[in-house]
Specification:
2 domains; eight-stranded mixed beta sheet; binds guanosine-5'-triphosphate; binds magnesium ion
Length: 382
């Protein structure tokens, strides 16, 4: 039997109810758990519908508040780690699944896919999805880039969606994650990075299952909404610098299928709302911190104080900038955060203008080749 966990903060209660019902109705699921960030309106709504849900599906549906476990911002990491502990301490289920509570394309097949991969012996199952050409910009530009630079010879840079929150772990994997102090400390958006890293470092068998209909969920507007996530995901990668990862993990990726137009034609963010971020809120110290970067990057960024410029932040400039960030970035320093954020915004707009505009196929191929090029270069140590 499996436990299905939904971490949630404030979401549409109707969507959460639908997703909890899908999980509770699945034959492989013996218990469902919702882990709330705080006692706000969504939490109250789940409290109000959960006994009816349990009665009609015959599956217990529990609701708890997340514990304070880590030392970073109390966020999704505390929520997911609370779910892992509940799984080990309160249930005798063999497997735990995690799904985001805000998914509007969730269905029983998501659970079935993960269960059947686990039945075939995999320790970890990760769902991956087709993403529109301007989605997943933290995944590509931060996490996959960072994994390629730091651990080029491992499976890490080959994980399709290392920030994915749709996962299955067997019980021994959950035990290892709860025993891993780095993972338990990562209470913020860095949790997905840590789960991915720790499971690959532990040499487990990881299967990535493809969900062709994609993950439709609550969307962001401009790139500002992603700022906290960006900063926390970068810091998580940087904190792992120096870790040794062997090549013991096995990793299989399910074949993909034709991508629906709703994804190939989707625009991921508001370009106009994003452009002006390049010129806003500069401080003298931020300008000074750019002194760490190659001249072309420094001058290109400084020019944004008067007019938006971004084409200089191409693949090569990003590689060099990322190396500098890994070495020089100071976590928790607001000026460094602003420098990181603005560099990333410029890189994403540069990619949008030169690659995403050429279409879905082109941009997906480009991003995959970019990461692979970084990986090969890091492997050669150049
Ligand atoms: N328990 C808990 N859940 C959280 C917290 N923050 C976010 N969540 C939930 O975590 C899930 C993912 O958060 P989202 O805001 O949807 O993240 P996202 O931008 O969709 O991330 P991607 O799916 O990678 O694009 C949702 O179910 C959120 O409600 C938190 O602090 N605690
Ligand atoms: Mg979401």
């Amino acid at each position: 039997m499996s436990l299905v966990v939904f971490p949630f903060r404030t979401e549409d209660p109707k969507v959460v109810e639908f997703n909890l019902r899908v999980a509770a109705s699945h034959p492989a699921v013996g218990r469902v758990l919702a882990v709330g960030a705080e006692e706000e309106s969504t939490y109250q709504a789940v409290e109000a519908f959960r006994s009816e849900l349990a009665a009609t599906t015959g599956t217990p549906v529990d609701l708890i508040l997340q514990d304070r476990i880590g030392s970073k911002r109390p966020g999704k990491g505390d929520g997911m780690n609370t779910g892992l502990r509940y799984f080990l301490n309160e249930t005798d289920a063999e497997r735990i699944h995690f799904y985001d509570a805000d998914i509007t394309s969730f269905g029983p097949d998501w659970i079935t896919r993960a269960e059947s991969a686990a039945d075939r012996g995999h320790d970890v199952v990760r769902h991956f999805f087709p993403r529109s050409s301007t989605d997943a910009m933290i995944t590509w530009m931060i996490t996959r880039t960072g994994f390629a630079l730091l651990w080029p010879h491992t499976e890490l840079p080959r994980i399709e969606q290392p920030l994915g929150g749709e996962l299955l772990f067997t019980r021994p994997v959950a035990e290892a994650l709860v025993a891993d102090a780095r993972v338990q400390d990562q209470s913020d958006w860095g949790i997905d990075t840590l789960y991915t890293f720790s499971t690959i470092q532990a040499g487990l068998s990881v299967y990535e299952t493809y969900v062709p209909q994609g993950k439709q969920h609550a969307m962001y507007g401009g790139l500002t909404d992603l700022r906290t996530m960006l900063v926390e995901c970068f810091s998580a990668i940087q904190s792992l610098t120096g870790e040794v990862v062997g090549v013991g993990a096995t990793h299989q990726i399910e074949a993909t299928a034709a991508v629906p137009a709703s994804i190939t034609e989707k625009i991921g963010y508001n370009l106009e709302a994003t452009l002006h971020l390049l010129g806003e809120d500069w401080t003298a110290r931020q300008a000074e911190l750019l002194g760490h970067f190659p001249t072309g990057v420094k001058e290109g960024m400084l020019a944004n104080r008067s007019t938006p410029t971004f084409l200089f932040l191409d693949e090569e400039a990003w590689f060099l900038s990322f190396r500098t960030l890994l070495e020089a970035y100071v976590p928790g320093d607001p000026d460094w955060e602003a420098v990181l954020f603005r560099l990333w915004v410029a890189r994403v707009i540069s990619y949008t203008a030169t690659r995403a505009l050429r279409g879905y196929e082109h941009s997906q191929r480009y991003l995959a080749e970019m990461v692979d090029g970084y990986r090969r270069r890091a492997e050669l140590g150049s």
